[in-house]
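thought: fold this chain, then report.
action: predict
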Amino acid sequence: MISVIIPVYNAEKYLKKCLDSVLNQTFKDLEIIAVDDGSSDGSPAILDDYVKKDARVKVIHKENSGVSETRNIGLSAVTGEFIAFLDSDDYIEREMYENLYKKIQEDNSDIVFCQIKRDCNGKIITLREPNFKKLVDNPKDIKYFFYAYNADESKDVVTDVIFGSVWRSLFKTDIIRKFKLSFNPELKIGEDRIFTLDYLSYVDKVSFVDKFLYFYYVNPASAMGARYKNYLYENNKKFFEEQKRIIDKSEMNLIDKKLSLNRIKYTLCNAVVTNEVKYNESASSELKKIDKETFFKELLTLSVFKTMFQDGVKSKKIIYFALIKLNMWRAIIKISKAIKK
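observation:
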């Protein structure tokens, strides 16, 4: 049996499509565990209605505590041999779980991934991940999770930048329980990436289905939406610590460990600064506070700039990072406003 965990929070606009895509799967041996994270819209009523429609649906109602704790409650309730995750505003192809189940059984592997597509209000963008096959050949070599990317969102096919998302995979329940794996409630963004990386440290074999089976809906109101996140800097400090912990214990060689950490650093730096200059009216004062912190200063060392050049980061972006390094916030904000126009 596959246990499908669906965290739900104020998703009434998308929830029926999500649930129907699971219930209509060609693979029928499912239990759907929908955990309502204190929704204030019509989501709880929709969930209760689906319990009456299909005995495979189980619903847990709880007070709001965030997606990590919500998924963890789902983990504690599963009875299936395998576990899948699905976000309540997303949906899947009818044969997704059949494909993943067959592959993980045929290969006798510990986890299986598939390709995904992004649904941007009806515009479907293919997110192609070229590094999965390399991970299949060497499941302990997680450096592929930290490769640089240059996504061009204007194209219909872009390099996948959400490699670590849990909903594109099928996990084994016994591995999760044996090693007491769970989602970190201190992280509001990136918690699923850490979960996947931790899981991979305990596996011997990885499988990959080269089919686009999962549709990731871009919801502006979600945690990943385009709005100011006043928690992002502190979140990214913890996110870096967790990724460093996993890299340090991994079987990567020292060079790859250094390169991976450097890629994380300039990626997180870009995210923090972009969050301030694009969405915060008080960006200048906030950035001046942040740039005094040791963690932020260490995000752009000479070694990190060398990695940028090695990764082929565009010269305009490197200049932008140089301005950040020099704390030229007025110039950075001015450039950002010019780009908006």
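thought: worth noting. The first strand starts at residue 2 and ends at 8.
final: tokens above.
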